[in-house]
Amino acid sequence: MERRDFLKIAGAAAATAAAAACTPGAKNATATQKEPGTMTYRKSPQGEDVSLLGYGCMRWPTTTDAEGKTIIDQEQVNALVDYAIEHGITYFDTAPVYGQGESERVTGIALSRHPRSSWTIATKLSNQRGDFSREYALNMYRHSFEMLQVDYLDYYLLHSVGGTSGNMGCMEVLQKRFFDNGVLDFLLKEREAGRIRNLGFSFHGDQQVFDYLLSQHDKYHWDFVQIQMNYVDWNHAHTLSARNVNAAYLYGELDKRGIPVVIMEPLLGGRLAKLPTYAADQLLARDPGSSLASWAFRFCGTMPRVLTALSGMTYKEHLVDNLRTFCPLEPLTDSDLELLEKIAEDYVKFPLIPCTDCKYCMPCPYGVDIPGVFSHYNKCVNEGLLEEDRQSPAYRKARRAYLVSLDRNLDKMRQAHHCIGCAQCVDACPQRIGIPGQMRRIENYTEELKRDTSRL
């Protein structure tokens, strides 16, 4: 999709965005101009109102138990869910593999305290590993009902399609996960029986898989599709990783078929809420009262085919800020979109690692905190701490700040030098990052800084 086509779509969206926007108690109202403080809604395939802000349940807050083990903090989760529902959020997204396998159970407890009609739940068939057996997949499906304490699922997804596994290519993996074992046929019958209200898939990976599944739309009637979309990935996902697909193409293909779009990674793993200074200054100059994150969410919400944009709101301040953005949504102007595209063009020139902190690569069998290593490295890039010119006056200060922040943020036993290059994590990464190679690069850079004792 060319920029002019995007601006045309976005311009139309500005006039019709949030076609169904209302307070939680009056969901049938429609208006293009909404009073402050009301959630923005979009229509589901069944005509139900869906909050344009969806709650991603991958990164719930944690605490430690009596034995010092890190666990999800159920009390905090309950409070966050209560506040979200009170302020109009209806869409909650989880998966069997989220939260080290605990997200569905914890989310189910929190939601079950509210009337079933006040929320919708999305979960996934996360059968990416193993032998792709029918028994394994169906057990996972049934377990989701038990953990979520429901007798039907509002949204169910074939999870993270498009990846490879071992020596198998992406199309072979797709075939074995859902077709050869009869799992997709089973799910279609579950939809007919009403135990699944909406059936779709989440896409990470090879365009061939995406195109094939859409070519089968007349047969399977996808109710929605979840894609990674933000103002950087719109035109530059392929630049960040050669195996990724630009969101403009994904959105355009879904829009042509009238398939509702659910957005994941609207903040690119949080990186668009922590922009380099040059980019942050431009957005703050245009709107000093808005957060950097709000620009990314408004980008997603401006697109009329978007059903909901997911945010993993670990802390209440994240939730409150996002509610301000969507209550109500103010669509971006053509000028705003042009500014974001310019920022995106510059952003992809930075040597950032495209990790979104999804933690699909974890746990590492050798204890490396893979997303933590990448997060620290990207943070240092944004803060200008990767000064490689030893003759630069800034080198000594940047070198010291990098090493100090590394040890403060990451336990020494979890740093990059513990990676042995086993590559177990590579197939699990939806961003197609060459993780062992990046670990070696970061390790080499870090060791070089440590050896340079002459500039302490």
Which secondary structure elements does this structure contain, and how are they paired or packed?
Blueprint: H1 3-16, E1 20-21, E2 40-43, E3 49-51, E4 53-56, E5 62-64, E6 70-72, H2 74-86, E7 91-93, H3 103-111, E8 120-125, H4 134-148, E9 153-161, H5 170-179, H6 183-193, E10 196-203, H7 207-215, H8 217-220, E11 224-228, H9 233-240, H10 247-257, E12 261-264, H11 277-286, H12 292-302, E13 306-311, H13 316-326, H14 334-347, H15 370-382, H16 395-409, H17 435-451
Parallel strand pairs: 4-7, 4-13, 7-8, 8-9, 9-10, 10-11, 11-12, 12-13
Antiparallel strand pairs: 1-2, 2-3, 5-6
Helix pairs in contact: 2-3, 3-4, 12-13, 15-16
Oligomer: single chain
> How many alpha or pi helices?
17
The total strand number stands at: 13
Give the distance, in angstroms, between the N- and C-terminal Cα atoms: 51 Å
Largest sheet: 8 strands, parallel, barrel
Helix content: 40-55%
Radius of gyration: 22 Å
Shape, per Cα inertia axes? globular
Give the helices and strands as they follow along the chain. Answer: HEEEEEEHEHEHEHHEHHEHHEHHEHHHHH
Given helix and strand content, the structural type is: alpha/beta
Give the overall pLDDT as a whole number: 86
Uncertain ranges:
10-36
